[in-house]
Amino acid sequence: MSESPPFLPYGRQTIEDDDVAAVAAALRADFLTTGPTVEAFETAFKAKVGAEHAIAVANGTATLHLAMLALGVGEGDVCIAPSVTFLATANCARYVGAEVVFADVDPDSGLMTPDTLADALKRAEGRRVRAVLPVHLRGDVCDLPGLKALADGVGAVLVEDAPHALGSIGTFDGVAHPVGDGAYSSFASFSFHPVKTLATGEGGMLTTNDAALAARARSLRGHGMQRPPGAEPWWYEMPELGFNYRIPDVLCALGISQLAKLDRFVTRRKALTALYAEKLASLAPAVRLATSPAWSDPALHLLTVLIDFEALGTTRLAVVEALKAKGVGSQVHYIPVHRQPYYQARYGALDLPGADAWYARCLTLPLYPTMADGDVDRVVEALAAAL
Predict the structure, then answer these.
(1) Residue 156, Cβ neighbours under 10 Å: how many?
(2) pLDDT-based confidence at residue 2 (cuts at 50, 70, 90)
(3) Correct CATH for 17-259 of 3.30.40.10, 3.40.50.300, 3.30.930.10, 3.40.640.10
C-alpha cells in the first residue's frame, strides 16, 4: 500500500542544518537574552533593506506598538489602516489610545490605494490624523508615493506594515526601493513568525532613517531605561514608561543565519509563483491570482487566489475541506478587521465594498521555499477537482 504524500500547509519555515548549528552556538555563548547577537542581526538587516537604523524586537505586533509610541501617537489622534490585514495593524493604534479609521482596499489586490485612503481621510475629517499604515499584503508593494502625498497633506506619516514583504521591491520614478528602506515612511515593520519569508520563531524588526525615532524605539523596547553618558556603570534612568519587548540573542542567531539565505528564498518563491500562474491559467476566469501592481516586484509571502465560488456553484468551506482531504492546506487572509465585534461595537457598521469583495473570493494556497515543482501541480489538480 503506497503512502499518502506529505501534507502541504499554506506556509512553513525553512530550517536547515546551519540554522540549527547557529542556534546551538548561541546557546553555548555567554548571552541567551539581549547580547551582541541582537546588534549583529540589526546591522545585517538594515544593510539588507537599505535603512539607516534597525531595531529588533520580540514580535511583529511589538514593532507596531513601538512605532506608535515612538511617534507620540495617543489620545485624540487617528490612525488609518486598511481593513484587509491582520488585527495588529489596527490594534496598535488602540494600544496607545488613538482611534482607527478603516480604509477600503482594491478588491483585486487587497491593497490600500490613494483613492481608498482619500475616502478614509474624508471620514476622518475634523480629527487629527497622525499615521497611515499601508499593508504590503501578500508581499505586493503599496503605492507609497501616492499614499505619502496624501498623508503629507494632513500632517500624517506613513508606517509600513511589511511583515509579508521582506525581499519585495517597489519601483517608483525609475528607482527601485527595497521594502524597509524608509524612502517614504517613518517606520517599516517586519515579522519573523515561522510562515514569514524569514523565521526566528517569534520576532520582529523596525527600520527607520530617523535617528531620534530609532533611539526612542530602542529605549521603549527595554522598559524605557536609559544610561546617560558618563554615569556610573550601574546607573540607569527611566524618563518614560516602556515595555519589555526585547528579543533574545538565540533568536537573533537564527535570524542572522536565515537572512544570509534571503535571496535564495526569494528566488524560489518567485519561481513557484510563476509556476502557479502558468498552472492556474486553465482555471481562469473563475480562479486567478490576486493582482500585482505594475510597480511591485514582490517576494510573495502568501499565494492568494481569487475564486468566484458562487459562479462555480460551491462554497469556500467546501473547497477548503476538499483540499484538506487531498493533503493540501489553505487559509483565508483576512477577515476584514472592520467586521470584528470589537470594532463594530466601537465604530458601528461600515460599508467597505472592496474589502468585502476581496474577502468573499480570497483563498491562500501553499507557498514556501522547500516546495517542489510537482507540489504546485498537486495543489492545482486538487483545486480543480474541488471546484
Answers:
(1) 26
(2) low
(3) 3.40.640.10
